Amino acid sequence: DAPRSLPIDGRVEVRWTDPAQFSDIRYSGNRWQASRGTWVMQLAEHLRESAGKRLPAGTQLEVEITDVRRAGMYEPWHGIRLQDARILRDHYPPRMDLRFRLLGADDAVLAQGERELVDGAFLMRSTSLGDSDPLRYEKAMIDRWLRDEFGRDAHVAATP
């Protein structure tokens, strides 16, 4: 019954497939804990906000998130005290699969494709001291994709 898209607002539309089928919930080690909260919506809102800052004038972006695996994993074998703790290890990187279309002012498709985002070096990247956002690794991965895909200064990169 949860929403499958953000309300349309501005030039970036973000929607997602059924979160119950996302890898993070299906293979988490603690399905109940993994499905708690509004993390899908928070990632979608971050994607919309960050993408809106990078798009060339007159363009629109449509993104559909098809899978998410957040950084870390639940390891219930550590005992009752840690069964609800997400353990961060380098072999549990954040991942996201998505489809996108970049449309020009005349609705012509300027770029489109499917991307599999993975940040295998997420634990080696610096984060701000005191950054306690539980989605900081996923948000940083999204920001890197947007920068690589659409450039630093709102210029579209060529898409195969």
Tell me what the structure shows.
The protein is α+β, with helices and mostly antiparallel strands. It is 25% helix and 24% strand. The chain contains 4 helices and 6 strands; from the N terminus they run βαααβββββα. The protein has helices spanning 23-26, 31-35, 39-54, 136-150, and strands spanning 12-16, 60-69, 73-74, 86-87, 95-103, 109-118. The protein has a 4-stranded mixed sheet with strand order 1-2-5-6. It has a two-stranded antiparallel sheet with strand order 3-4. Strand 5 (95-103) and strand 6 (109-118) form a beta hairpin. The radius of gyration is 17 Å and the shape is globular. The protein starts with 11 loop residues before the first strand and ends in a 10-residue tail after the last helix.
> Helix coverage percent of residues?
25-40%
Number of strands: 6
Average predicted confidence as pLDDT: 86
SSE string, helices as H and strands as E: EHHHEEEEEH
Structural class: alpha+beta
Task: Describe how the helices and strands are arranged.
Elements: E1 12-16, H1 23-26, H2 31-35, H3 39-54, E2 60-69, E3 73-74, E4 86-87, E5 95-103, E6 109-118, H4 136-150
Parallel strand pairs: 1-2
Antiparallel strand pairs: 2-5, 3-4, 5-6
